[in-house]
Design a protein that fits this description.
With 484 residues, the chain is an alpha/beta fold. The protein has helices at 14-17, 22-38, 55-69, 83-96, 108-126, 140-143, 169-182, 224-233, 288-298, 323-335, 339-342, 355-368, 383-390, 403-406, 422-434, 436-453, 456-471, 478-483; strands at residues 3-5, 43-48, 73-79, 134-138, 155-160, 187-190, 205-207, 246-248, 254-256, 262-265, 275-279, 306-312, 345-350, 371-374, 395-398, 414-416.
Length: 484
C-alpha cells in the first residue's frame, strides 16, 4: 500500500502539435521552452490509483510522456489500497455523481479506513517530494494525501475529474467529506465550471477539460484491412480477408494484436450487419443495461443491426471493485431478452495484459462501428466520446456532464437530454443507421470539433500555463531549492 512509479518514456513534443496551425504550434513551443527552463531542478508529480483502465490513466500516460519530451522531470506514481479502501473510494465516486453506490455511509469508520490506507503512501511521497516541486493529485482516492504534504514547500494541486451538474444532497455530503483534505491545496482543477463545488474560491479554481492523444494506439490511424484483421485476431469478428492485425505503438514501432477478448452473448459480430457499440468500464453510471434495453426495444425492431458492449477484463482495474457485479447484471438482463435479440448482442471483455494492444482493439471497434453510443447516467467528461468523434464515427450520447461540452447537437453528434429516455435514444441511433449521408456529416463534424478543442496539445498548453502561475506565487528563494 505504498507508492509505485509508473515507467513512462519521453515522447517528442512534435507528435503532440502536428494537428495545430503553425501559429498555435509556435505558441505552444514558446510556452514549453520558457516553462521548462523555469522548472529546471524540480519535479512535476502526478498521483492516482491505477496505471491502466479509465480515462485518467490514459491521459497521464500521454501528458507525462510529452512533458518528459519537453525536458521536464515529470513522474507518475500510483498508490495502493486494500478492498475496504477501494469500496470507500468507489462509494465516494458514485456519490460525487449524485448516486448512492453501495448505499453505505461516509461515516467515521469510512474516514478511518480512507486515512489509514493513505498514510502509507503519504509517508513515501513526503520523503521524495522537494520544495518547489509540483504535485498533482487526481480524483477522490488521492485527496487525503494533500494535507500530508502541507508544509513541504511543494505546490499542491488536486484535480477532480468527476462531478455532477446539479448537485443533490449525496454529492454535497461527499464534498463535505473531502473538503478538509482539499482545502489545503493551492489549486483545484475541475473538468467543467458546473462541477466546481460551492464554497471554493474562484482564485483557487482552474477549468481544464480532458483531451485525447491522437498519436496514441487508441487513436492512431488504422487502415480498413487492419481494422478487420485486428477484430478477427481478438475474436470479435470472424475471419475476413488477408489483412494483418497491425497497430502502431507509442514508440513508433509496429506490432500485431494476438490476445483474445472473452466473448459473451453472441460468439462474435456479424461482419455484414451495422454495429452499434458502447465502450466503457463495467460501471452502472455508464448504464450498459439501459443500452441493452434500448437496443432491444427501440433499435433492433426498426433497423437491421447488432449491439456490442465492450469493456476491460473485470479483474484488470484495481480501483473499481464493482465491475464483476455490473457485468453479471448485464448478462442477466441479456438472458431476459427474446432469443432473436440475444443473437444480435455481443459482450466483449477486452484483454488488458498489454495496454497498447487493448487500445488498438478499442481503436478498431470505434472505427468499425456505424454508431458509437455513450448512454451515461452521469459523466465527468467521457473521453470515449471524443475518441469516437476523432475517428469520424457518429455518436449518440446522453446530454450529461462533459459530454455536453463535446457534442453540439445535430452538428458533431446527437444528444439525448434525459439519459433514461430509451425511445429518443433509439430514434437517434436509428436515424444514423438509416441515413448514411447524414451519419457521415455528423461524423465529420465530430472530428473537427475534437481537432479544435480536445486534442492533447490544448491540454499541454493549459498545464504549462498552470506551472508558470504556481511558480509565480513562490515565497522562497533559489537557495531553498538548491538545498532541497
Amino acid at each position: 500500500m505504498s507508492l509505485t512509479e509508473v515507467p513512462v518514456k519521453a515522447r517528442p513534443i512534435a507528435h503532440a502539435i502536428d494537428e495545430l496551425s503553425p501559429t498555435s504550434a509556435d505558441e505552444l513551443i514558446a510556452r514549453i521552452a520558457a516553462t521548462s527552463e523555469a522548472l529546471e531542478g524540480r519535479t512535476v508529480w502526478h498521483i492516482n490509483t491505477t496505471a491502466q483502465g479509465g480515462g485518467v490513466a490514459e491521459m497521464l500516460a500521454s501528458l507525462v510522456a510529452y512533458a518528459r519530451g519537453a525536458g521536464i522531470d515529470a513522474r507518475w506514481c500510483v498508490i495502493g489500497g486494500d478492498q475496504e479502501f477501494f469500496a470507500v473510494t468507489k462509494r465516494i465516486h458514485n456519490r460525487l455523481h449524485g448516486a448512492p453506490g453501495d448505499g453505505d455511509a461516509l461515516d467515521e469508520r469510512a474516514r478511518r479506513s480512507y486515512e489509514a490506507t493513505l498514510a502509507f503512501s503519504g509517508k513515501a511521497l513526503r520523503s521524495r517530494v522537494r520544495p518547489g516541486d509540483i504535485v498533482i493529485f487526481h480524483d477522490p482516492q488521492t485527496a487525503g494525501l494533500v494535507p500530508m504534504l502541507e508544509g513541504s514547500g511543494a505546490h499542491l494541486v488536486w484535480r477532480c475529474h468527476i462531478g455532477v451538474d446539479d448537485a443533490n444532497e449525496l454529492a454535497k455530503e461527499t464534498w463535505d467529506f473531502l473538503r478538509p483534505y482539499v482545502d489545503v491545496a493551492h489549486e483545484l482543477i475541475f473538468s467543467r465550471v458546473q462541477h466546481v463545488w460551492s464554497g471554493i474560491e474562484a482564485e483557487r479554481t482552474r477549468i481544464v477539460p480532458p483531451a485525447i492523444d491522437h498519436r496514441s494506439p487508441k487513436n492512431h490511424l488504422l487502415w480498413p484491412e487492419s481494422i478487420d484483421a485486428i477484430l478477427h485476431s481478438a475474436g470479435v469478428l470472424p475471419s475476413n480477408g488477408d489483412g494483418r492485425p497491425v497497430f502502431t505503438r507509442t514508440t513508433g514501432e509496429t506490432d500485431e494484436v494476438v490476445r483474445k477478448a472473452v466473448m459473451l452473448g453472441a460468439p462474435h459480430l456479424d461482419p455484414d450487419l451495422p454495429i452499434v457499440c458502447q465502450v466503457s468500464r463495467w460501471d452502472r453510471l455508464k448504464d450498459p443495461v439501459g443500452v441493452l434495453k434500448a437496443f432491444a426495444e427501440h433499435i433492433f425492431p426498426w433497423q437491421p443491426s447488432q449491439l456490442l458492449l465492450a469493456g476491460p477484463s473485470v479483474t484488470s482495474v484495481a480501483d473499481d471493485p464493482e465491475q464483476a457485479d455490473v457485468l453479471g447484471e448485464i448478462l442477466s438482463a441479456l438472458q431476459d431478452l427474446p432469443q432473436a435479440v440475444r443473437n444480435h448482442v455481443a459482450v466483449a471483455c477486452l484483454p488488458m495484459d498489454d495496454i497498447e494492444e487493448n487500445a488498438a482493439i478499442v481503436n478498431a471497434l470505434q472505427r468499425r462501428s456505424q454508431v458509437i453510443v455513450q448512454k451515461s447516467l452521469a459523466e465527468g467528461f467521457g473521453l470515449t466520446v471524443a475518441e469516437a468523434m476523432w475517428k469520424g464515427t457518429p455518436v449518440v450520447a446522453s446530454g450529461v456532464g462533459g459530454i455536453q461540452d463535446q457534442i453540439v447537437h445535430f452538428s458533431s453528434g446527437l444528444l439525448v437530454d434525459d439519459p433514461t429516455d430509451h425511445k429518443t435514444f433509439g430514434e437517434h441511433v436509428s436515424l444514423l443507421l438509416g441515413e448514411p449521408e447524414f451519419a457521415f456529416a455528423i461524423g465529420d463534424g465530430g472530428r473537427e470539433r475534437v481537432r479544435e478543442n480536445f486534442l492533447v496539445a490544448r491540454h499541454l498548453l493549459q498545464d504549462f500555463q498552470m506551472y508558470d502561475d504556481l511558480l509565480a506565487t513562490e515565497d522562497f528563494d533559489d537557495e531553498v531549492l538548491a538545498s532541497a
